[in-house]
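Quick one, probably user error.
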């Protein structure tokens, strides 16, 4: 039964929180300190009371008793001298003694108020004084002066006996007063010793309470928190399997349990994340392999189509040269269709090869002055610009780390499209701007051409997507798709400004340094072989 009670008590204490332990500890400490304070106050009060009694009552009472005795001696001396000589000068100390007697008697009565034994001794002294004065002092003092008092001679023996009785009573009173003062001193010494021990005990209890408080804080708060912090740092260091040890009061154990639950959940989430990452890596590898295969396929297909296409183009051109005008009009039309289709196929294959090269070959990262690159592009497009009467302006452009060939292709496609898709009968105006936005540079190419409808703002960046027929505007529909690939390769984005209605405004961003530098491609380089007719 005792073991069960101890186990039950331990379980009950184990449910106590830090706040409850602090409340109980503070309450017990306050009770102990209050008891010790009350005891100390009582001892101090007792010491002060005894000390005051000694200083204000016992010692003054004994001193007053001695003074009373001295006043009585003065009376006895004066009366005896007056009785023997009849000289009135002896009555001076007698009368002064009477005045002092009254003063000291009243003083003793005031000092000994409440002390029955001492007041009884004082009453005995007063009775003895009354007897001596009634029988001896007053009758002799009343005798006529000038001659010795006959009464003094007759009552000399009685006077001596009466005054000796008075002195005996005085001696008894003084003995009691000395004994009371001695007892008071002993009580004061004992009380002061008790006071010293009480204050030593108070100091010891305070030190013990402080030690207990520090030890309780160490065991109940600092050590569990230090253990919790160490476990948390271990987990934060990467050892997610390290358990969080629950120690200390109930609330700290609950906190440790909640943190350990978070750790276990984090372990599960990390395991799930790691599994997802592995799947994502596998998918990325598959996607990269698929892209490489698609790129290889596009390259091989484009490259391998060059030879049969050259033959088709060459022989259709030979047919056109040798038999042009010798056949009927329908045959000439068919030959023209064949030559035009072969040429367009040649252009399409070359554009496809250019598209596949972006970020794969001719990658030379260097500081590129975009002003210079734009001027070179405008020089290359000078014929088309002059024919269209285009006016092209630009703000100062920055110098970025980029591939100069790809940046040239970017300007060529953007400026070329702005010139090509102009309003009929109107000379195009094209303006290029550049502005720093955080870590990126924001560029705009604005024209006053035919514009792009908002619903086609995304479609125009898809490869081979055309908004016009080849008879209206020439081209393969790959220019803006190539621009998007170049911009994204250099860490930026490109889009059509949907709010601009007076033409087309293309907005793109470029990073000062591209985010990645691909290695050289393993694919062989192809050339744009032109198809020359065979003579």
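Nope, works fine. Designed sequence:
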């Amino acid at each position: 039964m005792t073991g069960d009670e101890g186990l039950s008590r331990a379980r009950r204490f184990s449910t106590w929180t830090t706040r409850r332990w602090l409340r109980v500890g503070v309450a017990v400490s306050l009770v102990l300190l209050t008891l010790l304070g009350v005891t100390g106050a009582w001892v101090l009060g007792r010491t002060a009371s005894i000390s005051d009694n000694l200083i204000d009552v016992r010692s003054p009472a004994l001193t007053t008793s001695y003074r009373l005795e001295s006043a009585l001696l003065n009376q006895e001396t004066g009366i005896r001298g007056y009785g023997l000589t009849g000289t009135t000068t002896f009555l001076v100390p007698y009368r002064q003694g009477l005045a002092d007697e009254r003063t000291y008697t009243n003083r003793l009565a005031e000092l000994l108020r409440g002390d029955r034994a001492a007041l009884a001794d004082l009453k005995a002294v007063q009775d003895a004084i009354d007897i001596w004065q009634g029988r001896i002092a007053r009758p002799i003092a009343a005798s006529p002066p000038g001659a010795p008092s006959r009464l003094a001679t007759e009552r000399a023996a009685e006077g001596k006996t009466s005054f000796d009785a008075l002195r005996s009573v005085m001696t008894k009173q003084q003995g009691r007063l000395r004994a009371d003062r001695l007892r008071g001193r002993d009580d004061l010494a004992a009380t002061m010793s008790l006071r010293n021990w009480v204050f030593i005990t108070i100091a010891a209890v305070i030190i013990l309470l402080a030690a207990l408080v520090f030890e309780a804080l160490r065991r109940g708060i600092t050590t569990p928190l230090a253990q919790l912090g160490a476990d948390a740092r271990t987990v934060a260091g990467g050892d997610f399997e390290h358990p969080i040890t629950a120690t200390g009061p109930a609330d700290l154990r609950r906190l440790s349990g909640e943190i350990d639950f978070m750790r276990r959940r984090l372990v599960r989430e990390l395991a799930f994340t790691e599994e997802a990452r592995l799947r994502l890596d596998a998918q990325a590898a598959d996607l990269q392999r698929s892209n490489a295969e698609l790129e290889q396929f596009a390259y091989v297909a484009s490259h391998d189509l060059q030879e049969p296409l050259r033959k088709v183009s060459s022989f259709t051109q030979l047919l056109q040269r040798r038999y042009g005008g010798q056949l009927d009009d329908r045959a000439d039309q068919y030959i023209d269709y064949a030559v035009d289709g072969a040429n367009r196929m040649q252009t399409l294959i070359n554009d496809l090869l250019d598209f596949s090269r972006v970020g794969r070959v001719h990658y030379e990262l260097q500081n590129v002055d975009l002003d210079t690159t734009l001027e070179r592009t405008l020089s290359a497009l000078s014929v088309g610009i002059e024919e269209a009467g285009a006016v092209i302006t630009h703000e100062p452009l920055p110098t970025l780390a980029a591939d100069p060939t790809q940046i040239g292709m970017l300007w060529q496609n953007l400026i070329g499209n702005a010139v090509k898709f102009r309003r009929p009968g109107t000379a195009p105006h094209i303006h290029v701007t550049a502005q720093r936005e955080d870590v990126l540079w924001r560029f705009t190419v604005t024209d006053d051409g035919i514009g792009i409808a908002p619903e086609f703002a995304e479609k125009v960046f898809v490869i081979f997507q055309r908004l016009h027929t080849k008879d209206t505007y020439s081209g393969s529909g790959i220019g803006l798709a190539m621009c998007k690939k170049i911009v994204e390769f250099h860490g930026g984005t490109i889009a059509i400004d949907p709010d601009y209605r007076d033409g087309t405004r293309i907005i793109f961003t470029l990073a000062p340094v591209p985010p990645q530098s691909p290695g050289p491609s393993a694919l062989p380089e192809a050339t744009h072989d032109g198809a020359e007719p065979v003579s």
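The chain has a mean pLDDT of 81.
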